[in-house]
Amino acid sequence: MQVLSAGHIYLVDDDASIRSALAGTLERQGFSVTPYASAAEFLQHATPVSPAVILLDMRMPGLSGVECQADLASHGWTTPIIFISGESLPAQIVQAMKQGASDFLLKPFSMQTLLVAVERAIESDRATHALLVRTLAVEKLYAALTPREREVFEAIIEGKTNKQIADSDGSAAATIKLHRSRVLSKMQVESAAELIALTSDIDISALRLRSLDIKHPLAPERHH
Questions:
Q1: pTM
Q2: Which domains does the chain have, with CATH numbers?
C-alpha cells in the first residue's frame, strides 16, 4: 500500500455537487482525493493507501454506506470511515458506529468540523500502519527464536529476572543468562527494557499463534 505524507481521502457520495465541493476544499488543505459516485464504484476501483480516511455517504442508490462498510470489514480493509449524511435513521447510525465508524457528520456541517474529523482519522490510520509495520518486523525476528528462546522471550517481556526464570523451571541461572543474551541479539535490541518497549502494543498470544503458521487476516497491501 502506498504511504502518503499528508493523507488520502476516498470521497464516496452520489451527489456530484457535494463531491466537487468537498474534493476542492480537501485538496486545498493538502490532501489527495479520489471521488466515487457510488459504493459499488469505490469497492470495484479503490486502491488501498495510507494514511487515509473514507468519507462515506450513508444513503446512496444501490449499496448503502453501512453495507459498504461491512463489505470492507469482511475483506480486512481497516481504513477509518467517516460517515456523512443528510438524513439517517438512528438505527443506521448505531449500526455504523458498532461496525467501527470513526465519526458521523450530519449535513450540513462546517468545513472546520470536517477537517478536524479527517485529521483525527488520518492520525489514527497512521498509528495503525506504524503498529502493523512494527508487528510484522517483530514477527520476522520472533520466527528465528528457538522454542526455548521463545519461552525466555515471554518471561523477559513479563519483567522477570534471570533468577526468577531459572527458579520457575529449575534451570541454571547461567543457562538463562545465555538464553537471554541470544534472545536480545536475535530481536536486535540491547536490553530487556528495549524489548519490552518494542513489543508493548503487540498481541503476544497472536504472535505465538502466527509462529505456528496460523495466518492473520489480510491487511491492505501498502506500496510506494
A1: 0.73
A2: 2-129 (3.40.50.2300), 134-210 (3.40.50.2300)
